[in-house]
Design goal:
homodimer, alpha/beta, Nucleotidyltransferase, domain 5, 2 domains, 5-stranded mixed β-sheet, 39% helix
């Protein structure tokens, strides 16, 4: 019956699905091995593929970092243990799988592809899929095709400048969207303002851990003033970024996924839409809708890679 | 020998060229008729086409405003006299030319197409052509194709938000690039600051007329403090906009045209490149270069329209 294997390679877990006709038929999940470097990860993927019945018509992989789709080379993926240099993941995996067809792409591109073909962006040929999670990433579909760009850098919406001279991004740049709308950026700002004396429940709710998306949701529910202000800032920054992105490339739809957006729910997406529309040039009625595929977007999109570009 | 006719339809002049093998062989120029509305303009274009020996392999037209390339309909073109509604320019012109092939597109798209195929962007498949003149417009070439977008709105870089809550754009939106880098925006700001008591030579140099691009160039040469500050702001705003555009769609090259940029010369383009690179995410070495075709870009690009999309 064939089918394809989609692999979602993340910093903490590896998910693999057997996908037939655009549906997940079986799924396996493992923790990302912390030792063994790229070879250890390749061995794990081979194991998962075998458990799902072999490579079938091919194996697609969504990986973090910069990916050269032509060669299957992954670089700049500091979230993967032992992965501080360029790795020819595609070729290594193909060899380990006895010559099976293997395609590797960036995880955000893969998620955008899945939402476009099978999820909330189905039937829409010009869209941006934005993932608001720890950071903020995006993938464009333009005229029905995933836009990768000449250096595989397209869709870096998290590093748009929304407030010149503003809050510092994790990348070091000032005023980037990610500093205002990514979970890490929110946490940095919340801790700095708490340290400077502002009162907030965020630090107590987080206790000794990270401020997860659920921490922000709980603080909002408790009418925490700082949490509300930070989320207002995030909505404003997203409105600036999305209206600008639309002025540049002309879009019909924004699909919103990612852990923070998922946790804050459709009301957050509705606020994003309002913040965008109120800043739009021209009369285009841009829509923002929640992503539809959740955690399956990664493996579904990876399996789609195998079918072609 | 055939050849094609390219028409550059502007608010003050209409330029028509006979183009053979990507070169202007003959050119005719008239003032845009102020009476007669769309019919008067069609009649003038027919006259120019006949003077150039007939429509040959077809007639391409670059027009201001919003253009639906499929139907040749031009709307929102307030600079054209009597043109306050949608006009089916393509169909009208085709009929008046006895059924000749006619293609109409937006003037900025047409200029970008010309610079991509015949000018400073030759051989580069991913570029933005930005025109810094009275306003600021842009056209993207992505993967070798002009990006029009589903509503013909792609490339509206002048209406990117570069300074949230900042100077008001001609369109009414706050903080748009055009308010900082377009000649009109510079003039508005200069006159407002002069009226508020700032000393500047700009108003005297302009005398009773508009502050043309040459006025800013002269004031810069005379070390006028306000002119220098306004141009610094323009360079900064352009750097923000271009680094953001590159983060979004991934570009190799920015081609810089338009009256103000032409007048301020290669040094201005060099400053734009520096302002962009210093804000870039990632290591991509974006280049900014002056446009190569000058006033011929409009008719050359219009003639290119006839060859295909």
């Amino acid at each position: 019956m064939a089918g394809r294997i989609g692999v979602d390679l993340g910093g903490t877990k590896v998910l693999a699905s057997l996908v037939v006709d655009g549906e997940v038929r079986r799924q396996e999940k493992r923790s990302t091995p912390t030792g063994g470097g790229p070879e250890g990860i390749v061995a794990l993927i081979v194991e998962l593929v075998e458990e799902l019945g072999g490579p079938g018509d091919g194996v697609g992989v969504g990986a973090p970092g910069m990916v050269d789709v032509e060669t299957g080379t992954v670089s700049r993926a500091p979230n993967l243990p032992g992965w501080d240099h360029s790795v020819r993941l595609g070729a290594m995996l193909q060899k380990a799988l006895g010559g099976a067809r293997v395609v590797v792409d960036n995880d955000v591109n893969v998620g955008a592809l899945a939402e476009h073909r099978l999820g909330a962006g189905r039937g829409v040929d010009n869209l941006l899929c934005i993932f608001v999670g720890t950071g903020v990433g995006g993938g464009f579909v333009l005229d029905g095709q995933l836009r990768r760009g000449p250096h595989g850098m397209a869709g870096e919406i998290g590093h748009m400048i929304v407030h010149p001279g503003g809050r510092e991004c994790g990348c070091g740049g000032p005023g980037h969207l990610e500093a205002y709308a990514g979970r890490s950026g929110l946490e940095r700002e919340a801790r700095a303002r708490h340290a400077a004396g502002e009162s907030t429940a965020l630090v107590d709710i987080a206790a000794d851990g990270r401020m997860k998306s659920s921490v922000f949701a709980k603080a909002l529910d408790a009418d925490d003033r700082l949490a509300a202000e930070l989320v207002d800032d995030a909505v404003e920054a997203l409105g600036i970024a999305l209206s600008t992105a639309t002025a540049l490339v002309d879009l019909d739809l924004v699909v919103v996924g990612g852990g923070l957006a998922d946790r804050l729910g459709p009301a957050f997406v509705g606020r994003m839409e309002e913040a965008t529309r109120s800043r739009m040039f021209g009369t285009t009625a841009l829509r923002c809708v929640p992503a539809a595929l959740g955690d399956d977007a990664g493996t579904l999109g990876a399996a789609l890679l195998v079918a072609g570009p």
